[in-house]
Amino acid sequence: MSAVSTLTFRELSEKMDQRVADGEISASMLPNLKSALRAFLASFRVSEDSIVGSLLRSSYYRNLRLHVDKLQAEGREKAYIANRKSLMGKWCSLVTHLDRIEAATSNCMSPFQSALDELLTRSQTTVAGLARAAGVSKATLRRWVKGALPNPRAVPSLKRLERFFALEPDALVNLALERQHSRPVETAPAVRIPYRERMASVTKDTYRLKTVSDFLAQEWSDFVIHKTERLPELERYSRGAWVTTDLVTERETDRNWYCFTGGKFVPTAKIVWGHVTSFLGWLTRTRELGGAGLSSADVQTLAWLSSKRMVHRYMKWLIERADGKVHDGVLDVASLIASLNHPKHGYLTQMPELRERLPELHRPEVWQDACLEAYKWASERKRHLLANGIEHSREPMAPIKRVLELDDPLAAVADMISRMKSCRPTTGGISEAVWARDLLLVKLMTSNPLRAKNMKLLTYRADNTGNLYRRPDGSWFIRIEKRAFKNAKGAAKNRDYDMPVNHVVWGDIERYLSVYRPRLPDADKVDYVFLSSTEEKPDGYVGAWKSLNRRVFYLTHRYLWQCPGIGPHGFRYIIGTATLKKAPGAWDAAAAVLHDEVATVKAHYAHLRPSDGGNFVHTLLDSAFARM
After folding, report:
1. pLDDT digits (tens, 9 = 90+) for 418-471
2. Residue 591 CB burial class (10 angstroms; 0-12, 13-18, ≥19)
3. Model pLDDT for residues 326-353, shown as the tens digit of each residue
4. What are the distances in angstroms from CA 112 to CA 39, 100, 439?
5. Which of 156, 185, 443, 464 is spaced 20 to 30 A from 565 at the CA atom?
6. pTM of the predicted model, to two decimals?
7. What is 86-151 written as a DSSP string?
8. Contact partners, residue 203, CB within 8 Å, separation at least 6
9. Which of 248, 249, 285, 90 is nearest to 178 (CA)?
């Protein structure tokens, strides 16, 4: 017999105590919750040692109505009765939550699925017949009967079923959607992220150059070769070489040609090409919209990057577009212009033949003078911008600000995982395999907070030669060559990554690899740990899971407390902050788990509340303070 089926009211009360300890229920509310439960039980002459049974399950709404009738007979005010109903709703919702977790763990029907099964039996009809009679989608109802859980958009259909069977309002809604006790679905104001709101607006107004001529494509390819070859013909700054790699999540195509050379991916080329095409696209933007008003045919050359006047106008426009913020993108443009026009090793300075590619009205008389002017101006602007400080138009911590403010940010992730477990599909097949994959992904990102690219390229091989491997003692580790890291020239340059996976995740790894991964597409064709489902990839594509970032955003938006959605990098912020909250000043430990430099951790991951350090010290000195 399961623990839930034998759950007593005393044990249920202890579960609520844990909710308070976890910060999910206000401590000030607990006495009222306990008092309401005692009064409710007394009205039915039930003791705290009795099994919960149907009192807070299938018979709850009928029992609540009887309890309210008694309160009204006692002359209680409407506000008192409304408060009692609200408090008892939290107890009922907690029971539903526990039932869902138990159902997922034991492969039984969820409370919502059980309720539908009972209603079908009572109606003595088929799914199609019930759907037709109640006015809901037959396909949707069939998915629910098989174990799928409704999303909030399905509330109208759930209401139709409630009315059809004369159920109490929200009887099915509360079984399908956890509302009372669970933090992510509290009716709280949506988290506003100003940067996302601004980007949602400006991305509708695209200006990047769309048409690239053969001349410009050849100019760019020559430039990328210059930046990547071992022995460049032209002068190149000693630290100005771009890295190439064969560790990629996307293959070379006609759409991404600009970031490949010799069949290898060039990460920096992808970034710089974005700046180049944005600037050239701005040149074609109409003057009424702040651009230079040139034709597309006139801007098909890198030579424009030596025009100090046009670059100046472009940077001013970037600042205006960002609501007056001088952000990193503006600094990047200044750095790029200074680099390209350096008097000794600037690429444009050494390519005077590009002058002829400019329209005659815009050709400088002396190419070297134009490059020198652009270099001096950009270098001075760069120093000026750095001296006055760069404003971050995007605050990466903003989406998880509430999580990071918790005493233990990891508690929110643990809470997220519990909710994911309770939503396990009971129909098997691909849907259950995707659920197991997602669960392992979140757990692994929490145990080993790697960057998205490393997660996408993570491999497993039965002979233990993959990135994810098992040691003879049964423990699981992740090893990754230093060249595979974004910071291969920084913190990762001196050591490969070879770190243990938390033991809590071992069972998930073994279960996923042996049971669920084989069900996913291409499991026998590639050795990546995480595979995309058919719906998550283009037809015919075989390779790394490209949409992993988007999936993490969806999962965190749905399951992580008060989070509008984050990518994999957000887990690095959570783990780094959680580590430093547990041990303030443990920069080396945080840097080790993040595989990063201490200076980087101090700058980006130690966003602690000002009081955290003081609270930690007070805890250390509690014994002495107690004697005062």
Report:
1. 778 867 776 678 889 999 999 999 999 999 999 999 999 999 999 999 999 999
2. buried
3. 888 899 999 999 999 999 999 999 999 9
4. 28, 9, 22
5. 156
6. 0.62
7. HHHHHHHHHHHHHHHHHHHHHT---HHHHHHHHHHHHHT--HHHHHHHHT--HHHHHHHHHTPPPP
8. none
9. 90
End-to-end Cα, the chain, rounded Å: 53
Q: Under DSSP, is residue 500 helix (H, G, I), strand (E, B) or coil?
A: strand
Q: Which two tokens stand for residue 23?
A: 């910060």
Measure the CA–CA gap between 175 and 117, rounded to whole angstroms: 13
What are the pLDDT digits (tens) for 490-500? 555 567 899 99
235: tokens are 């002068």
**Residue whose C-alpha is closest to residue 263's, from 314, 313, 317, 225:** 225
Mean confidence (pLDDT) of the chain:
85
How many CA atoms are closer than 13 Å to the CA of 66, on its beta-carbon side? Answer: 12
Low-confidence stretches of the chain (pLDDT beneath 50): 1, 179-189, 609
What domains appear along the chain, each with residue ranges and CATH number? 9-181 (no CATH), 201-388 (no CATH), 399-620 (1.10.443.10)
- Residues 433, 520 contacting (CB under 8 angstroms): yes
Q: Is 248:453 a contact under the CB 8 Å cutoff?
A: no
User: What single-letter DSSP state applies at residue 478?
Assistant: E
CB 572 within 8 A of CB 396: no
Q: Which residue has 């309002």 as its token pair? A: 169
325 sits in which H/E element: none
DSSP line for 232-287: -SS---TT-PPP-BS--SS---SSSGGGEETTEE-HHHHHHHHHHHHHHHHHHS-G
The dihedral sign for the CA sequence 324, 397, 591, 545: negative
